[in-house]
Amino acid sequence: MRRACPVASPVPPRLPAAPPLRFRGIFKAAVDAGRYDLAIVGVLASVVGAFYYLRVVMQMYVRDPAGEEVPAPLRPSEALAIFAAAAATLWIGFFPSFLLALAHRLA
């Protein structure tokens, strides 16, 4: 049985590509300054980071589970905490004026 699509991954697929793309200017500046050692270390660190993130995604979504997955029973305290967090999120989302007024008063 295949798992969910990796598009819904909690580790965004852009994370492995972020260091080489975002810090491309830093690597270029290091090469322009003749600091090839610094540029090589930066690129290698980016490759190691990409390998780590891709391994996590592969483990979560591509590999078959080791055994039959059984959902853990939900204790009443856990259910209460989930309900309280969901209620607070919805309340703040639909009625933000109280929180905004409080932030304005404290600022």
Question: Which terms would index this structure?
Answer:
single chain, 107 residues, mainly alpha, 2 domains, 5 helices
First-to-last CA distance = 54 Å
**How many E-type strands?**
0
Structural class determined from secondary elements: mainly alpha
| SSE run | HHHHH
Q: Rg, please? A: 23 Å
Q: Regions with pLDDT < 50 over 5+ consecutive residues?
A: none
Largest sheet: none
Give the domain tally: 2
Average pLDDT: 80
How much helix, percentage-wise, in residues? Answer: 55-70%
Strand residue percentage: under 5%
Assign an overall shape: flat
Counting DSSP H or I runs of 4 or more residues, the number of helices is 5
Describe this structure as you would to a colleague.
There is one protein chain. The chain has 5 helices and no strands. It has 107 residues and is an all-alpha fold. It folds into 2 domains: 70 residues; 35 residues. α2 packs antiparallel against α3. It is flat.
